[in-house]
Write a structure and sequence with these properties.
Layout lengths: L13 H4 L3 H42 L22 E9 L2 E8 L13 H6 L7 E5 L9 H12 L3 E5 L13 H16 L7 E6 L1 H14 L7 E5 L16 H5 L3 H4 L13 H5 L6 E6 L7 H14 L5 E6 L16 H10 L2
Parallel strand pairs: 3-4, 3-5, 5-6, 6-7, 7-8
Antiparallel strand pairs: 1-2, 2-4
Helix pairs in contact: 5-6
């Protein structure tokens, strides 16, 4: 029997409008299948990032792989006109070799010509103050401002030991907070074993201020106090009290990022509790900070100075601000003509 063909008002037949049930099911299932795949892909990406990102953030914190200046032979400081300076390598712990520059007091430059490492090391007993310079993140001991600091100190007739932490420059290993602190302590103990009764002063810059205060507290646990500590461009990681962090730019640049990936300092991977360290330290402290510092605002230094004064007194803790109109920013204090007198006054007070 022939099936009647029903024609609708719009001219289409019911037969033409019928869609097989299997096709409808396929169309209905397609979006959910793609949604499932997309969800799984998103979870996979999050999982991979969660495994990789902590390592990535560690590199963002230290930026130690950015070894500027480029194409420099760190074993030859004279190539950078860094005279009366010798390169050496110290083993801070098994498998960790630290590249270190030892710059002599400027008055010894002629005598130093052609001398070997043993001769340089023996000069540490000459009675001149010895500075250990702990640099900030990024780059190597060959950075212009780091050499600039060494030259200022050498001109004052001080020794300068400038190490690259593990993972920086030609030093081996990977940087961690504990590792950097161990490196600083090793260099300090190495110097103390060779310098007799000479003063040993720690100069920390930026990240190095965190390393310096960590090392000071570790030594204090052993009953040892640094002769003096200078903190240039010091930062404060106590974020609950200060709404900015020297390493937090990556998180506020990408809102919501911290929800999935906590900051490295949140899991004690990078802490550098400078403020808490200052409450324990017993060494004389000199803060140096530019009013135009673009990385660590001056009020951070002011706050930490007040913490340190409360822990000691205003005679043992000093804060020297530098005119913001000079354009020193975060790295340029070594250019200030008053800096040598400021350093000399601090050393004479020790």
């Amino acid at each position: 029997m022939a099936r009647k063909r029903v024609v609708k008002a719009d001219g289409t037949s019911s037969a033409a409008r019928e869609v097989p049930s299997s096709a409808r099911v396929q169309k209905e299932r397609t979006p959910s299948r793609w949604g499932l795949k997309g969800g799984l892909l998103a979870l996979f990406v999050i999982f991979i990032l969660h495994r990789i990102l902590p390592e990535l953030i560690q590199h963002l914190v230290y930026t130690h792989r950015l070894r500027v200046p480029f194409f420099v032979d760190l074993s030859q400081p004279a190539d950078l006109s860094h005279n009366h300076t010798i390169n050496m390598y110290l083993t801070s712990e098994e498998g960790i070799s630290l590249g270190v520059w030892h710059t002599l007091p400027q008055s010894q430059w002629k005598e130093a010509q052609g001398k070997d490492l043993a001769w340089y090391q023996n000069t540490l007993r000459d009675g001149s103050p010895v500075f250990i310079y702990l640099h900030g993140n990024t780059g190597t001991r060959a950075a212009t401002h780091r050499i600039g600091v060494a030259k200022v100190l050498s001109a004052l007739d001080y020794h300068v030991l400038a190490p690259d932490y593990r993972g920086f420059g030609d030093s081996t290993g990977e940087p961690t907070e504990a590792g950097l602190t161990t490196d600083a302590l090793y260099v300090y103990n190495w110097v103390k074993a060779r310098c007799g009764n000479s003063l040993v002063v720690i100069w920390g810059h930026s990240l190095g201020t965190g390393v310096a205060t960590n090392a000071a507290v570790k030594l204090l646990e052993q009953g040892v106090v640094f002769d003096g500590v200078m903190l240039e461009g010091a930062f404060n990681s106590a974020r609950q009290e200060i709404p900015f962090h020297v390493f937090s730019w990556f998180y506020w640049t990408f809102p919501g990022f911290g929800y999935f990936f906590p900051e490295p300092w949140a899991k004690n991977k990078v802490v550098f509790p400078t403020e808490e360290n200052l409450k324990k330290m017993k060494s004389p402290i000199l803060f140096l900070h530019a009013l135009d510092d673009h990385l660590v605002p001056f009020q951070v230094a002011q706050q930490m100075y007040e913490v340190a004064v409360s822990a000691q007194n205003a005679e043992r803790v000093k804060l020297v601000p530098f005119d913001g109109s000079q354009g020193y920013l975060h790295n340029g204090l070594y250019r200030d003509p008053q800096l040598p007198d400021i350093i000399k006054k601090f050393v004479l007070s020790l």
